[in-house]
Amino acid sequence: MKRLIILALTIIVVFSGWRWWQASQPAANDAEVNAESALTTGKQEPLAMPENATSAEALVLTQESVDALKAENDELESRIADLEQQSKDAQQLIELKAARLQELAEKPDAQ
Do 77 and 71 form a contact (C-beta atoms < 8 A)? Predict the structure, then answer.
C-alpha cells in the first residue's frame, strides 16, 4: 500500500512539473516569435526599399526578404515538430505511469 501511495505521489509530482514546464515554455517562445516577427510585420521593416531603387535592386531586396521569411518559417516548423515530439513523449510517459499504477493497484498487498 505504501508503494502505491509513493507511486501515485511521484506521478502527481512528475505530471505537475511537466504541466508547469509546458505552461512556461510558450511564454518564452512567444516572446522570441514576437521579436522575430516584428522584423516583418511593418513595425520595423527589415529591408527598407530606397526611394531611388532601380527595379533590379527592388527585386534583389524582395528576394532577400522572401528568403528571410522562408528561413524563419523553416525554423518555426522545426520548433513545432520538436514540441509535438515532446508532447508525444510526455503522453507516453503518462500512459506508462498510469499502466504501472494500475498494475500495482491490481496486485495483492505483499505486506
Answer: no
Q: What are phi and psi of 9, to 5 degrees?
A: -65, -40
CA distance 101 to 93: 12
Query: Helices marked H in the chain — which ranges?
Result: 2-37, 55-106
55-106 helix and 2-37 helix, angle to the nearest 10 degrees:
170
Provide CB contacts within 8 A for 111, sequence distance 6+.
1
Q: What is the pTM of this model?
A: 0.46
Tell me: the pLDDT tens digits for 10-31? 888 888 877 777 777 765 555 5
Whole-angstrom distance, CA of residue 50 vs CA of residue 52? 6
pLDDT digits (tens, 9 = 90+) for 46-85: 556 667 778 888 888 889 999 999 999 999 999 999 999 9
Q: What is the DSSP secondary structure assignment for residue 41, as one 8-state letter?
A: S
CA 23-29-66 angle, 5° bins = 150
